[in-house]
Amino acid sequence: xxxxxxxxxxxxxxxxxxxxxxxxxxxxxxxxxxxxxxxxxxxxxxxxxxxxxxxxxxxxxxxxxxxxxxxxxxxxxxxxxxxxxxxxxxxxxxxxxxxxxxxxxxxxxxxxxxxxxxxxxxxxxxxxxxxxxxxxxxxxxxxxxxxxxxxxxxxxxxxxxxxxxxxxxxxxxxxxxxxxxxxxxxxxxxxxxxxxxxxxxxxxxxxxxxxxxxxxxxxxxxxxxxxxxxxxxxxxxxxxxxxxxxxxxxxxxxxxxxxxxxxxxxxxxxxxxxxxxx
Length: 278
Known about the structure:
20% strand, Rossmann fold, single chain
């Protein structure tokens, strides 16, 4: 970094010292080459993209960047979308929160990354679970992040505007990573899976909630058609479990609910570490 010290830049842009501390802790996780020389703090979140927009051109993707959606997302749009995706017998939003917490097994002091965090509805839940740890919410939508900052009052949360397919963090930076109801809208989802696996620490846990093809036609046929209309990618039932396994993750578990799938996995701990805990 150049110019004034990082803490001075943060305090001059954002008066909330606790938020500045969380951003400072997050910057310590960055790869040296990815640390911005000039920090862009917009409405309380750190903008790593500037004029870049990795969102994608399709209607569903553009809708996520709209001004209107963040106002109704958490209380109307997301619960309604969950019901459409998983059916009437699927979990409620509170149920999804419980599922995410169970899949991630969070403990105090851990570092958590929430990929595609939207307005921070899961980010805030994780912040309560990790205590003096830190939770980073990452999204490409300016409007979603502005809403997330407005709704978040925890001092261990930092929000970043960034590309899930090109994360700025060092390898093995996070103990747990969540990506709920976002992977199917990311323009390069398998590249995002690459990055999630890369920045997950040994012993770390991953929790995904994504689409799942259930019809008579294979995902190779349904997904291009659905994506051309909406921007949503339809994953096959084996696609994500296979992707995580081939990237070295283990203990891969999947639960299918309607047209959605919950997938959990873990990165193996080094052998000597595992033996030490026996």
